[in-house]
Specification:
Elements (H helix, E strand, L loop, with lengths): L1 H12 L1 H21 L1 H7 L6 E6 L3 H12 L3 H4 L6 H7 L4 E5 L12 E5 L3 H9 L12 E4 L4 H26 L20 H30 L2 H7 L4 H31 L6 H29 L3 H18 L10 H7 L3 H13 L8 H21 L9
Parallel strand pairs: 1-2, 1-3
Antiparallel strand pairs: 3-4
Length: 395
Amino acid sequence: MSIFQKELKQLVNDKGALLSTLLLPFVSTMILGFALTNSFSSEVSFEEVSIAVVEASTLEDDLQVASERFSISEDELLPLAVPDTLFAYMDSEIGVDYYSPDDDVVYKDYTAVIEIPKGYRLMLWHEQLGEEWSEDMESFQLFLNQEQRQHAMMVQMMMNSYMEQVYAHTELAENEEIAADFGNVVVQGNSPLTSFEYYTYGMGVLYVFFTAGLMANFAFTEKKGKIYGRLVLANIQPVNYLLAKFSTSCVIVFLQLVVLFGLSMLIFQITITNWLSFIAIAVVLCLTVGSVASLLVAIQFRANTEKVANVFMLLVVSILGFLGGSFFPSSNLSPLLNEIGQFTPNGLALQAFIQAGQGESIAHLSHSLIYLTTLSFVLFVFAWVVFPNKGGIES
């Protein structure tokens, strides 16, 4: 704890470095956001989103069967049709084409393809009208085009939100707590990202890794200045020193994110829909950067050089930014680059922040949370193993 307090006091005393570290991500966001407003907005326009619906039976046939079965007019059943009400709501912005299973559908031509099994609409009408449905029925299947990852992710979030509301309304209707008006659907995440929103997330997940390099350089400066040597003489354990660097890095990264997102919400009017998911991603990102900082400290002390952190900040962080999509959506360049970017910590955190910002739940982000948490643990353990017993100080 005493080492951690020393680190924080040292950080506060160096106000110039602290302010530049906290404000640089926001400044970069502002520059890129203004510079690429028009081009970025066009890249995420919903006019480029297309959906193919492969239905085993047509909506018209299902309406006719249901109308006869329930003695309800087709006009009353139509607003309850699932998932067709979503398409009707978005029809002016998203292209939707209907096919039969016999048609040869080229999946790669569409952002998403939905396969609706025979009887699926009838089952949903039964449930919405409070009737029992005894037959086993599979839900529709949603296939996403990984070559249009950004748009596909938006379609997936819309469908998730829509189906959650379908079942919420159905449950309430069965309890007679609401009327069967199912026409109004609030679609989550249906607004394209602005350039300011994208680069707030992109710069946020990128610049935090510069903090890891800066912390490693500060640590090596302490070694050269004999500060670490005095800590060793005071019987400070190496793992405690690493934990102090880890904790300090986490605090700085958290402050960076608070400043960046706070200013962006105030000035650029970005919105966060699911704060719980958003904070969870921010916490595991802090842990990941803290572990990276610890590993860099360990490697520099082992190699007795500060070049490792410099190479990391000048080269590795730039590569991570390119692959992870911090500078521009990597899916626009190559599907392969986009896939590789999903394995980088900043790329994974970027997509998770976007999803959380548009309302995705923690359950849907569990893969990202587990991946980053595991990566953090592995990197810190590796740093512990690499770090010299006495930090490279001769006995």
